[in-house]
Amino acid sequence: MLSGFLLPVQAQRMLSLDSCRALALQNNKQIGVAKLKQDVAKNVRKSARTKYLPHVNAVGVYEHTGKEVSILNSDQKAFLGNIGTILGDFGDLSKQLNALGEKVVDNFRTDTRNIFVGSVVVTQPVFMGGAIIAANKAADIGERMAQNATDARLQQTLYTTDQAYWTVVSLHHKKQLAEAYLALVHKLSDDVDKMIREGVATRSDGLSVDVKENEAEMRVTQVNDGLVLAKMYLCQLCGLPLDTDLILEDENNDQFRMEAAQPRANVELAMINRPELKMLQNSIDLSKQTTNILKAGYMPQVMLTGGYAASNPNLFNGFQKKFTGFWNVGVMVRVPIWNWGDVAYKVRASKGATAIANLELLEAKEMIELQVNQSQFKVDESAKRLTMAQSNILRAEENLRTANLGFQEGVIQTTTVMEAQTAWLLAQSQRIDAEIDVKMSQVNLRKALGTLGINE
Asked: Which H helix or E strand runs over 383?
């Protein structure tokens, strides 16, 4: 029995708005992707820095050829091999001259069918037309863009989480309201049934109340279904199992906590903070650096080179079948002369992309200014709606109390009581909506200002 009581308690989980936000930021997959993109941009930036430094490469080559290089032609070889005979028959002297000729022929043999070459080359860029500088600036911009994209994703996640949180709170209160309304209709139905039995009410009155009772029961069912789905969505955002029994901190508060410091519209602040604008500015800056990289195609390029090379066979001391090498240093200059306008066309296209990005930034600024002002109007409007809804509740409650009293005294009809109950339900529902609108309008304004999640 004890475990039966404890298990439902253990399955429940109490969460505040801050804890929901923390879970959503921790478990959101897109935030994880954005952070990985930050790491990618960071490594790209580090890679770009290495272009300033000298690079060292080692190269090894082996080549087998079907023929070897021959310095002497066939006639020269034949002449040297028979030089003693050609000069005259002097007996042993002719043989010695022939042997000496053969030795000369063998010494001139290269045996280059198997060639081994190895080298170590050091290259240091001196001037690359500004391409390296532009590439490094582009890498820095890319890293800032990745950070701004992460900030935008963080704010969007907070915004979505706040919406889901207050939706659950709203549906929970509407569930309580629907159950309270159903209780009122049940009581009215019992009273009408008694009056029908006593002959002071008609069957038509009972049928009208039964219809309202069915509508109230359907309302409870719909709100319950909506609440279950809203909690499942909030669990998904928070990275929790969908069947987690959530209890939110604000579910049982009759009056929601209103913030002491209300956000106010500030277009200049939005222009500074909005990550979307920062990303568009990053796109413009990146396009400009792309143009600079393309312009480098017009410029000469200068590099220092140095290294050590060795080969087998080698020619440094005649033909030798062993590794022998040498040091070398040099300067390499590359000057573009003619490319049929290829670079010019690319530069023009890049400048066009920059102009497009500038227009998009201007349009975004106009839209954000409009969004900030609209959000401020929504904040003011929701505050007025809440004040009116609170006043309407007092009137609806008094109207319902008067109708119930008149119904008990027999001076008010059943339809009047049902109308008073419906008006009470509407007033209570409007109050809940108004309170949620106040919360969400403030969240909307913070998101429009780009301050959502900052110093909260």
From this structure: helix 342-409
Residues in CB range of 211: below 8 A, 6 or more apart: none
| Bridge partner residues of 48 (DSSP) | none
Q: Where are the alpha helices (DSSP H) in 82-202?
A: 83-87, 92-107, 131-198
Bridge partners for 120 per DSSP: 58, 308
Domain that holds residue 380: 12-53+128-299+336-449
Q: Structure tokens of 340? A: 């049929």
Low-confidence ranges of the chain (pLDDT < 70): 1-11, 89-91, 200, 254-262, 454-456
What digits encode the pLDDT tens for the residues 278-314?
Answer: 999 999 999 999 999 999 988 999 999 999 999 888 8
In this structure, the chain runs to a length of: 456
Separation CA 138–CA 131 (nearest Å): 10
At 113-156, the pLDDT tens digits run 888 999 999 999 999 999 999 999 999 999 999 999 999 999 99
* Token couple for 60: 């090894």
Inside any domain, residue 330? no
CATH number at residue 158: 1.20.1600.10
Q: Please give the full DSSP string across 77-105, using - where no structure is assigned.
A: HHHHHTHHHHH---THHHHHHHHHHHHHH
Which distant-in-sequence residues (6+ apart) come within 8 Å of 345 by Cβ? none
The rounded distance, in Å, linking the Cα atoms of 183 and 177 is: 10
- Please give the DSSP secondary-structure letter assigned to residue 320: B
CB under 8 A, 24+ apart: contacts of 260-266: 262/379, 262/442, 263/379, 263/442, 263/445, 263/446, 263/449, 263/451, 264/376, 265/372, 265/373, 265/375, 265/376, 265/445, 265/449, 266/372, 266/449
Q: Which helix (H) or strand (E) holds 245?
A: strand 245-248
Q: What distances in angstroms separate CA 259 from CA 267, 437, 442, one per listed residue?
A: 21, 14, 9
Residue 85 carries which side chain, given as an amino acid letter?
T
pLDDT score of 111: 73
Answer for the pair 209, 189: CB distance below 8 angstroms, yes or no. yes
Question: Does 195 reside within a domain?
Answer: yes
> Is 119 domain-assigned?
no
Q: Give the number of domains in the chain.
A: 1
Q: Which residues, 6+ apart, have CB-to-CB distance to 289 below 8 Å?
A: 134, 135, 137, 138, 141
Asked, for residue 114, whether it belongs to a domain, the answer is no
pLDDT digits (tens, 9 = 90+) for 206-222: 888 888 889 999 999 99
Interatomic CA distance for residues 171 and 433, integer angstroms: 10
Could you give the 3-state DSSP secondary structure of residue 255? coil
Side-by-side strand order, sheet with 324-334: 55-64, 114-127, 301-312, 324-334
